[in-house]
Amino acid sequence: MKIIKSPDFDWQPHPKYTYPNHEGIDFYHHYKEDIALFAEMGFKAYRFSISWSRIFPRGDEAQPNEKGLTFYQNVIDECLKYNIEPVITISHYELPLYLAEHYGGWKNKQLIGFFKHYAETVIDRFGDQVKYWLTFNEINSAASFPFSSQGMIAKTGADDKRNVFQAWHNQFVGSAYAVKAAHEKNPDSQVGNMIVYATNYAYDANPVNQLAALKFDQGFNYYTTDVQVRGEYPAYSESLYKQYGFTGADLDRTPEELALLKKYHVDFLSFSYYMSSVTEVTGKVNEKNRWQHPGRPQKPVLEGK
Prior knowledge:
The chain has helices at 27-40, 52-55, 66-81, 97-103, 110-126, 146-149, 161-185, 207-230, 237-243, 255-263, and strands at 4-6, 9-11, 45-49, 85-91, 132-136, 190-202, 268-279, 301-303. It has one domain (4-279): TIM Barrel (Alpha-Beta Barrel), CATH 3.20.20.80. By secondary structure, it is of the alpha/beta class.
C-alpha cells in the first residue's frame, strides 16, 4: 500500500484495512489501453482533469513538475491518435493540500496568482493540441461543501458564507485569467465553466413556492454561472448576500478584477446533471416525503416531481 505524503502531513494506511480508492482503475499505468477501449466504443471526446498537485505539488512553486506535464502530454497524444477530442478540466476538486493548510484555501487572494501560473503553464504546454477547456469543476458546489472546490473546512472559515463568496470571486478571477491565456495561445480555443446542476421546480403555482424556487436557483444554480457567462455580478447578488448577513461591500473585489471578469468571460456553460427537485415551503408536503437538498438549509423539497 502506498503512503500518502504532503509537506506537513504523513499518513500511513491502517494494516487492517484496504483502500481501493487509492488505486482506482490505475489510469496512470493503463491509459493507453483505456483510451483504446474508448476508441473501440466510438467515443469522439474524452473529458478528463489535470491534477494541480501533479504539476505543482505544493501549488505555489515557480517551476512545474516535468514528469506530471509529460504524463498529460502522453494522454493527449494518445487521444489524438484515435481522433478523440480532449476536453480538459483545469481544476477538479484537487486543490493542493499545502494551499489549503498554509493559505486557508480559495478565500485567500494569493491563490489567484498561483492558479493563474498553473493554468498558464498547462495551457501554454497543451494549448496547440487542446481546443476545449473547463476552468473549475462544479464550482457552485461550494454552496454545500466548500472543502471540495474551495479547500476550506469549518476551522478555516467554511461556515462563514462571506468566505465562500469571497472564494468564489477569487475563483472567477482565476477563471478569467485561464480564458485569457487560452484565447491568446489559440484563438480557436473554447473555455467553459462547469456546475453541478439540480433542476428545480416550484411544487405548485403558489407565489410563495415560486419565489422560494427562484431564490434557490439564484443561490445554487445561477449565481456562479451568471458571473462567469455574463462577466458581471447579477442584479440579485445583494439580495443573496443579505440572506447571509453581509453585503457586496464586505467582499474584496477590485475594479481591475471586475473589468477582467467582463472581458474574459467563458465561451460556454457545461454541467453535470444529477437529479431534479421540487420546492415546497408552505407545509403542504408530508414531513416523511420531504427531501432535504444539501444547499438549502431548512427548506423542505419533494424529490422526483
